[in-house]
């Protein structure tokens, strides 16, 4: 699934720090949002590092202004063969190697988020399978009998210490229930999650599960909760442009025109530098996709508001699972004759 990244990110680049707060030459509107002690930000991430790539500056802003931040990671990033081979120094990783790699990535995430002011007890790993979310969304979204088995870790359920719902297994219904329980307990009024146009299957699948859990596409939910979408994977972006903390991140060329609206959060010099330090804390990822990670270390962060219409495709093994998820939901919620 990640093949499209590897050829682009073989080396790690050094990004120079720049002082001051950068302007936004892209001409995008600034994120107009009041952040104070009443702000309750929930960041939903497919893998360790996505949360910092997409919203490290936003998390800092909420923390420094007295709001609350909660981060939920659907996977521990334990299905990354190239990363495991480099980190563990093995040519043919075994299930134990993948599991150990996931533990290491969790440790890096907690360290990175602590840099951003997010406490350890505000970080939740759900332990679902890396590189398996799309299969769960396509085949196991509403199936209560069968569970998915990770070809990497050999697991069919999250580690016992990471189950939010007792008896949770690798089934869509369990992942949805866990997200529902987290949202119900935390009661966020600001949510940051992957955009459905993200080309990584785990990312667009994360959007599907989030939408299933709390209906981010509904008008009612939009009124109660401000929803921001971040983008990580789209072609060669953002490696196609000059990068560094003194530069501004602009939307990728060729991004589909939908009802979504791009907005920019301009970071202070301190926020931008702290975001770079947080990205550097993902040591295992810096070894293999470092240049890609640091390409997001700019003077701003980008978000898209509003759900795109029509629903973007989410491809998994040649199947548009977004369409199938919509059909399944219609069948599940339609009144019986």
Key terms:
Rossmann fold; single chain; two-stranded antiparallel ribbon; alpha/beta; disordered C terminus; 337 residues; seven-stranded mixed beta sheet
Query: Roughly how many Å apart are the termini?
Result: 42 Å
The geometry reads as: globular
The overall strand count is 9
Our estimate of the beta-strand percent is 5-15%
How many helices does DSSP assign? 11
CATH homologous superfamily descriptor: LmbE-like
- How many domain modules? 1
Q: Per CATH, which architecture?
A: 3-Layer(aba) Sandwich
| Class per helix and strand makeup | alpha/beta
Element-by-element helix/strand order: HEHEHHEHHEHHEEHHEEEH
Average residue-wise pLDDT? 86
Low-pLDDT parts are 1-24, 331-337
The Rg value, from CA coordinates, equals 19 Å
Secondary structure: helix percent: 25-40%
Largest sheet: 7 strands, mixed
Strand line-up of the largest beta sheet? 3-2-1-4-5-7-6
CATH class: Alpha Beta
**Which topology does CATH recognise?**
Rossmann fold
């Amino acid at each position: 699934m990640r093949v499209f990244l590897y050829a682009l990110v073989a080396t790690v680049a050094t990004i120079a720090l720049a002082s001051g707060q950068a302007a936004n030459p892209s001409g995008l509107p600034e994120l107009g949002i009041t952040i104070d002690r009443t702000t309750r930000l929930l960041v939903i991430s497919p893998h360790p590092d996505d949360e910092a790539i997409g919203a490290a500056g936003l998390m800092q802003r909420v923390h420094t202004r007295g709001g609350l931040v909660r981060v939920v990671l659907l996977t521990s990033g334990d299905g990354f063969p190239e990363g495991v081979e480099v980190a563990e120094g093995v040519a043919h990783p075994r299930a134990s190697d993948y599991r150990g790699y996931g533990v290491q990535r969790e440790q890096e995430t907690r360290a990175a988020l602590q840099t951003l002011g997010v406490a350890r007890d505000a970080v939740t790993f759900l332990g679902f399978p890396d590189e398996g979310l799309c299969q769960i969304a396509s085949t196991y979204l509403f199936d209560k009998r069968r569970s998915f088995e990770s070809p990497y870790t050999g697991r069919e359920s999250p580690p016992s210490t990471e189950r939010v719902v007792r008896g949770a297994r690798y089934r869509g219904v369990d992942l949805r229930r866990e997200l529902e329980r987290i949202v119900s307990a935390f009661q966020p009024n600001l949510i940051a999650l992957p955009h459905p146009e993200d080309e990584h299957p785990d990312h667009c699948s994360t959007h599907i599960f989030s939408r299933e859990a709390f209906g981010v596409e509904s008008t009612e939910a939009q009124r109660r909760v401000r929803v921001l979408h971040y983008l990580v994977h789209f072609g060669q972006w953002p490696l196609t442009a000059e990068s560094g903390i003194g530069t501004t991140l602009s939307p990728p060329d060729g991004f589909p025109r939908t009802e979504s609206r791009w907005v920019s959060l301009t970071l202070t010099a301190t926020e931008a530098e702290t975001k770079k330090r947080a990205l550097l804390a993902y040591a295992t990822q810096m070894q293999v996709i470092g240049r890609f990670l640091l390409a997001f270390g700019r003077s701003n962060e980008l978000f898209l508001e509003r759900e795109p219409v029509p629903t973007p495709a989410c491809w998994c093994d040649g199947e548009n699972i977004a369409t199938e998820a919509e059909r399944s939901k219609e069948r599940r919620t339609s009144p019986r004759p």
